[in-house]
């Protein structure tokens, strides 16, 4: 091959290499939560739930202290959120042929930010930052009716509801065992907490 024929090939190879990019991906899971509407009642309630959850998770891991879930007043587009609303905001659902008022829901979201660096003379780099966050919703009528009850087991149902929606926020599906936190009905306060925490740890280790 003559030198004059080789130059265009080399130039094309150089341009192809320059157009290619090294891709780096970073995953960030966001466990700072804001509560809406922001009120002293809502803040106090979820502060109690977060402390109890963090304590149980630390006990499961054998750690002395752990602050996994935290409330914050600094809301950003990447902050996880808790919404507390009245029953008019929640649809009724049909289960086992009976109609029930939805008491809450939870979901996990991903938001990607893409950054590119470099050009023709420098190999391009593409950085993908994935922000994972939760959105939890609670029916205030049930949440506070249960939490303010004089009966201990009824008060525990409010915490079970919190764990259940948090589980959905961690991609857990409903479980057929009535003793499981992820059972589709919040009809009992006596739940298998260790089994639930084991799945939480598995989610954290992804």
What's the domain count? 1
Task: Note the gap between the termini.
Answer: 53 Å
Range of helix content: 25-40%
| CATH uppermost class | Alpha Beta
Biggest sheet details: 6 strands, mixed
Low-pLDDT ranges: none
- Helix-strand string: HEEHEEEEEEHHH
Silhouette: globular
CATH topology (level 3) name: Collagenase (Catalytic Domain)
Number of helices: 5
What is the mean predicted local confidence, pLDDT? 79
Written description of the protein model:
The protein has 206 residues and is α/β, with parallel strands linked by helices. The chain has one domain (20-204): Collagenase (Catalytic Domain). It has helices at 3-19, 40-61, 140-147, 152-169, 193-204, and strands at 21-29, 32-36, 70-71, 80-85, 92-95, 98-101, 104-117, 124-139. The strands form 2 sheets. Strands 1, 2, 3, 4, 7 and 8 form a 6-stranded mixed β-sheet that branches. Strands 5-6 form a two-stranded antiparallel ribbon. Helix 2 packs across helix 5 and helix 3 (140-147) crosses helix 4 (152-169). The mean pLDDT is 79.
Question: Which helices and strands appear, and what pairs or packs with what?
Answer:
Blueprint: H1 3-19, E1 21-29, E2 32-36, H2 40-61, E3 70-71, E4 80-85, E5 92-95, E6 98-101, E7 104-117, E8 124-139, H3 140-147, H4 152-169, H5 193-204
